[in-house]
Amino acid sequence: MNRLVLGSAGLVAAGLLVTACSATDISTHDMSAMSSTPATSSAPPATTVGAEAEHNDSDVMFTQMMIPHHRQAVKMAKLADTKAASPEVRKLAAQIEAAQDPEIQTMSGWLTSWGMQVPRTDGMSMDHGMPGMMSDEDMKKLGTLSGAAFDKAFLTMMIQHHEGAITMAKDEQSNGVYEPAKQLAGSIISSQSAEIATMKELLQ
């Protein structure tokens, strides 16, 4: 009888030992696997919101209006290359062209990314009722001038043109939500305000 009890006890003990060893092996294996697997966060992955989700109607209006506004300024600046008498006027015109040409490309890219129409570059009227825009008649008259007469007309018209752009840019800063457009508006306000001051000095 005692032998049977001892034998049974021995079997139970042996079984417990095997079970313990197996549990230890599995635990060690699992821990090893966990240590070799990169930790993952429970937070959702970061997403980049596209430009189409970040703009509003004010951004679209600002961009669609500022593109033809800039194009007219560049057209006026190109006339100064051959018609201006003053080196200062030619220098200012080159500065305006160099600044606004790339901005036209940037704004056109925004409209394309938003699925919106980029203003045409064909022979449509340049007078869209926008602040500071010259009429087609104004542009034709400027093209007939040269020398000191051109300089005076160019500076007078460009001051008005810049003031209109600043008005549009301030509206964008107040009502737009697309941050790059608002930053461009701020740049237009600062740079064109400085150019207005320069042009007023040249007129005097």
TrEMBL record:
Signal peptide bounds: 1-23
PROSITE patterns for this protein: PROKAR_LIPOPROTEIN
InterPro entries tied to this protein: DUF305_CopM-like, Ferritin-like
Pfam family, one: DUF305
Low complexity composition bias: residue spans: 31-48
The keyword Signal is annotated on this UniProt entry: yes
Top-level division of the source organism's lineage: Bacteria
Occurrences of domain DUF305 (ranges): 59-203
Chain spans, region Disordered: 31-50
Keyword tags: Lipoprotein, Signal
PANTHER family named in the record: SLL0788 PROTEIN (PTHR36933:SF1)
Protein name as it appears in the record: Lipoprotein
